[in-house]
Amino acid sequence: MRKLLAACMKPQIRLQAVKVALCVGTLLNLINQGAPILEGGPLSWPHLLLNYLVPFCVSSYSAAKNDIARNRA
């Protein structure tokens, strides 16, 4: 677990995860909340935040696991 957290804290992994989260999170928000966004209606802020947080976590986890595996070999 410590190796995973240490790998997640690497600047290149965090930067890449932020890029993925911005791209995927924006697409998810357009898909999930498209009507309120286009019509100027109220947004669901918890859903908006989760639409960015989940891709960030998935990308970080995947990159960290890959980094650990690559360093093991």
Can I get a quick summary?
The chain is an all-alpha fold. 88% of the residues lie in helices and 0% in strands. Helix 2 runs antiparallel to helix 3.
Folded structure, characterized:
By secondary structure, the chain is an all-alpha fold. It has a domain at 18-67. The protein has helices spanning 2-8, 11-39, 45-72. The longest helix is centred in the middle third of the chain and has 29 residues, at 11-39. The mean pLDDT is 94.
Secondary structure blueprint with pairings:
Layout: H1 2-8, H2 11-39, H3 45-72
Helix pairs in contact: 1-3, 2-3
Could you name the key traits of this structure?
0% strand, 73 residues, 3 helices, single chain
Gap from first CA to last CA: 18 Å
Envelope shape: elongated
Class inferred from helices and paired strands: mainly alpha
- The percentage of residues in β strands lies in under 5%
Run of helices and strands: HHH
Mean pLDDT: 94
What is the count of helical runs?
Answer: 3
State the low-pLDDT regions, or none.
none
Largest sheet: none
How many E-type strands?
Answer: 0
- Please state the CA-atom Rg, rounded to the nearest Å: 15 Å
Instruction: Name the helicity range.
Output: over 70%
